Structure formats: structure tokens, C-alpha cells
Amino acid sequence: MAQNPLRLVIVGHGAAGLAAALAAAEQARNNGLSIEITLVEKAVEADAGGNTRWSPCHMRLDAPDRVAASFEEDMQRSSGGLADPTYFRTLSENATVTIEWLQTHGVAFSTPVYYLSAGPTRIQPVGGGGAIIEKLSRATSKAGVRFLYQSEARRLTVADDRVAGIDIQSRDGVITTFDAGAVVLASGGFQGNTAMMRAQFGVAGATIRLISPGTRFDTGDGIRMAREHGACVSGDWNGMHIEPIDPRSDRSAPVVLVYPYGIVVDQDGRRFCDEGADLVHETWEGFARDIHFARPKNIAYAILDSRLSDISGFERAIRSDVPPYRAEGLEELAARIGIPARNLRETVDSYNAAATGDAARFDATRCDGLAASGSLQPPKSNWARAIEKPPYLAYPLVGAIAYTFGGLATNEKAEVLGENGPISGLYAAGETTGHFYGTAPNAVSVLRALVFGKIAGRQAVDFLRTR
Q1: In whole angstroms, what is the distance from residue 380 CA to residue 275 CA?
Q2: Do the Cβ atoms of 411 and 422 come closer than 8 Å?
Q3: Measured distance CA(392)–CA(238) in Å, rounded
């Protein structure tokens, strides 16, 4: 193709990519610039949207126009002090203006009741992530952005630390080189790439279930391409956001988050964790990861009794559409789920003997301090009620990955960083970037994709304008 320095290519059709494309188109229009903007997506149009399309998209804000005063402190706490303070300060400072921008494009927000437990306030787009994809896709197309579906970004061209172009492979295998003055990488993490998962996490990394149909498209393309040109990395490369789901369900993200209110046993019928260590959104990553990487057959079972239905709104914590296994006796329940009946009976009896606190203190919405007493191992720190009222219930649980933490290093302008500073004309946003350490800050992933996608699009246009 003929050289066109005023061409911007955006890789990825999720929250970050669409925000970048729309923001870029608006920035170009406001500055009277004629910039050719192309959004490249490997999925067919009906499946485009990556993780965003399938996510409920909770966002950690007190209200659409208000960020919690503790936001930046919370980000540091979740990362063990490793988070880039400038990055998260930028996120905090731009969160509400980004939500307002989305509202101008037809995205409405509500304040949902989040599962059962207390925690930071969150807002949610009405219609979830699908609404974000629909509204931003429509606005982006109307703004003149060209969409290339079933097209895969293969290779960046970088000359003298400056982006010069990108190779795109169409569905028929033809590779076209786009001369481009700027590129935004918003193609997700590498959780959908079996080889990369195996290389990073070992053999078990290659067999983790994907949490949504869109997750399979996140194959690390943006990360790979940028690293080929010396891009630095960020985030915990041994980290991932992984959730406990019901493997029997075909739904997207069929999480089962009632496990703190009973006990959890492995394939041998034995407990292996403190089910009540903390609120569920603080424990679910470590819990799901333990199931996949350390439990026999990569599965566990939440064991509860009929008092689950006494918890107000318990259905909110279960997205599986498959009913639990039910039985009037523990031995029958064990037979239904295929674990040793004698072991399950011994485990429940030992737990019940230790769960002797005042059951009236039970409160599913907070850490209630109702602990199992005595020498129970592992202990249970909260919500320790005896399992004694049939019918008994069992939910099978496996770990399902949403996204990886390791990604590209970027700054507050969404510029991709090389050894000598920003790589001119190269930007990244969303899960393609790093910045998460230890555990994912809850309800931040989509928010940061939108905020830094918008920043990336505007910065890319400003760069093209001045080059």
C-alpha cells in the first residue's frame, strides 16, 4: 500500500479497542484532521468483543460521577505495593469522565447488588458488556472507522524506535502490509494461547477452562508483536484472574460463589482450604487456582445443606443454570458426585463437631467471625454453620481463566515502553498491558480498558498530528 503516515490501526474489538477507535475518530474530527482509522479483529462480527461482550462489566466506582477516596490505596493493597502509582492515579482521575463519555454514546449505568457479600461499591452498564460493545461499535462505525473482521495482526514494523506499519492476515490467508504512523494494541492477554499458557504456567496451564466464548480470541498477539521489537513488560507473569465455575454449564462465566457458606472437598472427599478466610471476591482467585493446579482431577465440590435457600438473594451468587446435586443423605450425595462416601461422612462429621458457634451470628454479607472451634484443619474463619439439614447439596467446581496479568509496560499516556523510553507511535490498553500483581483489583479490568483505550486513541491522533 502507498505510505500514509496519517493512518491509525487498532488491534482488538473489545472495550479497549473500541474506546481507542471512537476516541481517535472524535479527536481527529475535533482537530480537522483526515486520519484513516482501521480496527482489526480476528473474530467474525457476531463474535467480536473479546471478554467484554460476555462480562457483566462491574466497575469500581461509588457512582457514575464518583470514585472512592480509597481507590488508589486499594490498588496498591491488592498489588502488594507493586502497582505503578502514576498509572492508577491516571485511572482514578479519568474514570468518571470516561463514564460520562460512554453515557453520551448511549451506555446507561446502574448500581447492582454485588453477589452476597459486602465490598466496594460498583456500577454496571445496563445490559452488561454486550451493551458496551453494541453502543461503541455503532458510534465508532458512524464516526467513519473501518472494521476488518476475521483479520489477524501478525507483525509490527518498527524503524528507529518508531512504528512504521503492521501486517494483517485476512481470513483467506493473504497478508497485507498497512503503512501506519500509529498502532494501538488492544487484543487482550494470552489466556487463549495454549502454547503460551503452557510455557508460562506448565502443563496444567494449557488445560485451564476459558471463562467465556470470547476468551479464546485472546492469544497474546499484541504482546508478542511488541516484544519482538524490544517492548518492556509489566505485571505478574505468574498471575491470572481465574474464577470457580460449574463445569456442567455451557453458560459464560457460570460462577458458583456460595462455597464460603458450606465446606469444599476434593475428589477424595477431604477439605483443603479455609472456605471462610475472607469475603468471596477476596478469595475466589486463589481458591480457583488451587483447584486447577493442586487438586486431584482439577475439581472440587462445594457441600451445603438446605439452609442455603435461607440466605436472602443467594441466587445472585450462582450463575450456573444447572441445579446442584441433591440427596437426603451424605452417602447418597457422595455417590452422585463420585467421591468416597466414608471420607465425605468423616469430613462433615469432623467439621460439624467444630462448628459449634452461635448460628444466629451467621451473616452472609460480611465476615461474621463465626469460626469453627478446636483443632479443625484447615480452620474455617467465618460462616461456620454445621451441615446437618437435608437435602444436602453439592456443586462441582473447576477453575476458569478470564485473563492473564503479564503484559506490556505502558505509561499514563498508554504509550508502550521500550528500554529507551516510549516506542513512538505504539500504544496499548486493556489486558494487553500488565500493571496487575498478586491478585486482580476487583471490578477494575473493564474500567481500565475503557479509560486507557480512550487515552490511547487520543494520544495516537495527537502523535500523528505532530509528526
Answers
A1: 6
A2: yes
A3: 37
Residues 410-465 pLDDT 10s: 999 999 999 999 999 999 999 999 999 999 998 999 999 999 999 999 999 999 99
CB 423 within 8 A of CB 392: no
Contacts made by residues 350-353, CB under 8 angstroms, sequence distance 24+: 350/376, 351/263, 351/271, 351/376, 351/380, 351/384, 351/386, 351/387, 352/386, 352/387, 352/388
| Cell numbers for 289 | 487456582
Task: Report how far residue 324's alpha carbon sits from residue 322's, in angstroms, rounded to the nearest whole number.
Answer: 7
Identify any residues that bridge with 159 across adjacent strands, giving them in sequence order.
162
What are the helix (H) ranges across 202-354?
221-227, 280-294, 330-337, 341-354
Residue corresponding to grid cell 479519568: 94
10 grid coordinates: 487498532
At residue 113 the predicted structure's pLDDT band, cuts being 50, 70 and 90, is confident
User: Which residue type occupies 422?
Assistant: P
> DSSP for 113-128?
--SSS--S--BEETTH
For the chain, domains (ranges, CATH) are 7-238+405-466 (3.50.50.60), 247-400 (3.90.700.10)
Of 87, 65, 61, 64, nearest in space to 76 by CA: 87
Neighbours of 155 (CB within 10 A): 17
Q: Is 150 left (phi over 0), alpha (psi -120 to 50) or beta?
A: left
In this structure, are strands 415-418 and 421-428 parallel, antiparallel, or unpaired?
A: antiparallel
Judge if pTM exceeds 0.90.
yes
- In sequence order, which residues have a C-beta less than 8 Å from that of residue 158 and are 6 or more positions away? 164, 229, 423, 426
What letters, b where the CB count within 10 A reaches 16 and e where it falls short, cover 92-104? bebbbebbebbee
SS3 assignment for 182-197:
EEEECCCCCCCCHHHH
Q: Is 256 helix (H, G, I), strand (E, B) or coil?
A: strand
Which residue in 182, 52, 197 sits closest to 125, CA to CA?
Answer: 52
249: which DSSP letter? -
